Amino acid sequence: TAYKSGSGYTGTMTNMNLNLSVDSGKLGQALNFNGTSSYVDMGNSASLAVSFPYTIAAWVKAANFDTWATLVTTDINPGFTSGANLQIQGSTGYPQIGFGNNGGSNEKAGPSPIALNTWQHLVGVVRGPGDMDLYVNGVDVGGSYSGAEVTIQYTGNNARMGDDSLGNDFFEGSLDDVRVYNRALTPAEVKQLYGLGGATIR
């Protein structure tokens, strides 16, 4: 099933029913993911293969964080981390932004779990290795780094929402207004983006 974003990107809904997987979101319609098999394949457009600096943003309503969940990846890779990724850590529920070079990775995780079954705005701003900001609902939450200070590299594989291709990082919940920028948003821009959802609460 094809799904077209508001920015003109077309993705392929996999193991998703258009009538059941599209629901009311934070800024319009959201996509619901079942946590076991559903994802959206976004192809391998060059515009999604971001390098430093970049920003990934999404409205997220997570149903659980029992296991790791990939919200967005710009390069699926069954062996190693590559491309840019926005995730939720398993067990802890900490939001995480990061990237990889098909051998190593560098991440920054927030200091506390996101709330379940509640719309929250997650933004990761990455300027380079060890230079990232993680925002929850317009606020820079700080956090801690892990991994090596590697560069970002791509394998030529597709971008994806809701899974990373390993088959064990499926996201259960809803995503709305997913955005990938090829620049670092400023704190003011992050707050402005968060404010777009302030008048619509479902």
* Helical fraction: under 10%
Distance linking N and C termini: 26 Å
* Strand order of the biggest β-sheet: 1-2-5-15-7-8-9-10-14
Shape: globular
Q: Treating each run of at least 4 consecutive H or I residues as one helix, how many helices? A: 2
Number of strands: 16
| Relative strand content | 35-45%
The computed structural class is mainly beta
Short descriptors:
7-stranded antiparallel β-sheet; mainly beta; 9-stranded antiparallel β-sheet; 2 helices; 202 residues; 44% strand; 16 strands
What does this structure look like?
- There is one protein chain.
- The protein is mainly beta and 202 residues long.
- 6% of the residues lie in helices and 44% in strands.
- A 9-stranded antiparallel beta sheet has the order 1-2-5-15-7-8-9-10-14, with no helix packed on it. Strands 3-4-16-6-11-12-13 form a 7-stranded antiparallel beta sheet.
- The longest helix is centred in the C-terminal third of the chain and has 9 residues.
- The N terminus is likely disordered.
What is this entry, summarized?
It contains 2 helices and 16 strands.
What is the element layout, followed by pairings?
Layout: E1 2-4, E2 10-14, H1 18-21, E3 22-24, E4 29-34, E5 39-43, E6 54-62, E7 69-73, E8 82-88, E9 95-101, E10 105-109, E11 120-128, E12 131-136, E13 139-140, E14 144-147, E15 159-161, E16 172-181, H2 187-195
